Amino acid sequence: MSNTTTNPNSQNPLPETSIASPVGTTLERYIMQKQSEFAFATGELSQLLRDIALAGKIINREVNRAGLAGITGAYGQQNVQGEEQQQLDVVANIRFIRALRNGGQACAVLSEEEDDIIHTGNDHGRYVVAIDPLDGSSNINVNVSIGTIFAIYRRVTPVGSKATRADFLQGGRQQVAAGYILYGSSTMLVYTTGHGVAGFTYEPSLGEFFLSHPSITIPTEGKTFSCNEGNWFDYPECVRTYLTDCKRQRFAGRYVGSLVADYHRNLFTGGIYLYPPTAKNTSGKLRLLYECYPLAFLIEQAGGQAYGEHGPVLDVTPIDFHQRSPLYIGSPAMVTAYQDCVSAAEPAATA
Fold first, then answer.
1. Is residue 186 marked as binding?
2. CATH architecture, range 224-350
3. Is 228 a known ligand-binding residue?
4. Where are the domains of the chain?
């Protein structure tokens, strides 16, 4: 079969790619191609990732029409964290739980917006999902990028039974997949199953995520630090020492206030994101199970590092669903430099 076509105004044939260039690899096709890399290649995890992507498409629509639909602003209630819920928090929570329930592969969900386990009724499902349905949702009022963060585990309780705490408190090293969806100038889904990191960009006219970044690696070095400097005087001394050194080297301070947005920028351009403990949040503010763990798993697969208070975040033992942790995550050279500051401060602290 010929790969050329005739231009009616010319005798010169045109290559097909000049008049109908390929649109790329869809997320669904990519997942099927990579299914053999999954620890349990039965198709269930593939379907679960597609369910998350579907909910992400719906949230993309809700975010884009939020101002016109009147769903910006506060909802009027607090979540289990004691934080004021935004209307889009509630919408995203409903959408993701509904997609995971209808998909049939997740037997239970743990959400930032709910106090306890959400049983989907799919007791024969082999996976559980921990999720922050809409990180940074208060920023939607001012058109700042926001996102979804998720972690997937293979359940440890018997298939057919109700999921329990043990299914969610396995530890970060037991994740079988993790990722995030960024709702910004374009919507991107970035995920890992432990075999590198891939990124997909949403094409709204076709309603599909297409592979746009097949093998994401974070630069070893970076010249950007991301933190809330309004908490400067509450930060531990070693953090202030490290940040002072960053400023001395004329590194750029970049902080959106939306975890996914700050993390995404540093993943692609190099940098470090810091959320240390403060006087108000002595254990840190970010949630271990559905913020720190998934982003740490992904950054390690991209060649970066993620530390908590005393070592790699993925090695922190979980004891509570909504447990908090400090987080220092990003380019390996920058995270190592931060750890050197901590190590240098420890002898002085114990002297």
1. no
2. 3-Layer(aba) Sandwich (3.40)
3. yes
4. 27-213, 224-350
According to the annotation, is 153 in a ligand binding site? Answer: no
Question: For the whole model, what pTM was predicted?
Answer: 0.89
137 carries a ligand binding annotation? yes
Phi, psi of 91 (to 5 degrees): -60, -50
pLDDT tens figures, 281-329:
999 999 999 999 999 999 999 999 999 988 999 999 999 999 999 999 9
Ligand-binding annotation for 89, yes or no, is no
CATH H-level, domain 27-213: superfamily = Fructose-1,6-Bisphosphatase, subunit A, domain 1 (3.30.540.10)
285 is in an annotated binding site: yes
Say if CB 287 and CB 135 are below 8 A apart.
no
Q: Has 274 been labeled as part of a binding site?
A: yes
Residue 346 among known ligand-binding residues: no
202 labelled binding-site residue: no
Spell out the long-range contacts of 98-104 with Cβ–Cβ below 8 A and sequence spacing 24 or more.
Answer: 98/55, 99/51, 99/52, 99/54, 99/55, 99/58, 100/48, 100/51, 100/52, 100/55, 100/129, 102/51, 103/47, 103/48, 103/50, 103/51, 103/54, 104/47
136 is in an annotated binding site: yes
